[in-house]
Design brief:
By secondary structure, this protein is an alpha/beta fold. Helix content is 47%, strand content 11%. The chain folds into two domains: 168 residues, HAD superfamily/HAD-like (Rossmann fold, 3-Layer(aba) Sandwich), CATH 3.40.50; 54 residues, no CATH class.
Length: 250
Amino acid sequence: MAKRTKAIFFDLGETLVTQNIEDSMVTRNALQEISKILPKLVSPETLFRLYMKGYKTNDAIRSEYNVEIPIQTWMRQLLKRVTEKEPTDRLAVAFEDANNTLRKLSRQRVKLGVISNVSSHEVALGILDKVRLAKYFDLVVTSAESGIRKPDPGIFRYALYQLNIRPEEAIMVGDSERHDIQGGYIAGLRTVLVNRRKPLNESLADYRFKTLADATPRLEALARPTATSRPRQAAAKMGDRETSQTWRAL
């Protein structure tokens, strides 16, 4: 009999909130404000072009080696100086079902956490606070804080260590097959794919759903002290049945 679930981790961007963090963290509006404090005149458009050029270079490194490049480094590369004010994300909005899902799970004897790829830990915390989801989480782990990006198992193990739990006692919920599902699988966690777009033909996820609302009953069941885990293959088959039922109902 498997150990009961003690923790459920959620991805942030495109799982709990609508906006992809990396795409919106440094916006044209933010760059426009930064341009006002530069020692020489540089247009916001020029800053944005330089930022995007640096983004392509840095993102290729991050993706290949699963390491994080902090936002401070990006700004030094872009501005040739350190800015004391962190950029904020004004565009992130919580999905309608995020609050209800987290509220129900918070009533269970289970820890809730976030594991997110983002180059500023402060921005991730600010987003959770802005969309009023911060109160539900016992732990927020970001690649900016740990220096490791999903799908590297190191970031998942770091989160497990912080809560003093074993991999088989935790679940990873996310929208990315590569970052959340494959990464969680390699680290030994059970996995739940929430794909709000079109369904994948194949997935390593133990369970697959279209929305967090669809996933909530299963997550609640897994969080109950009496819940037991099935072998991955059997769980995957059940996940396929749940997925097909969910999509047929739409």
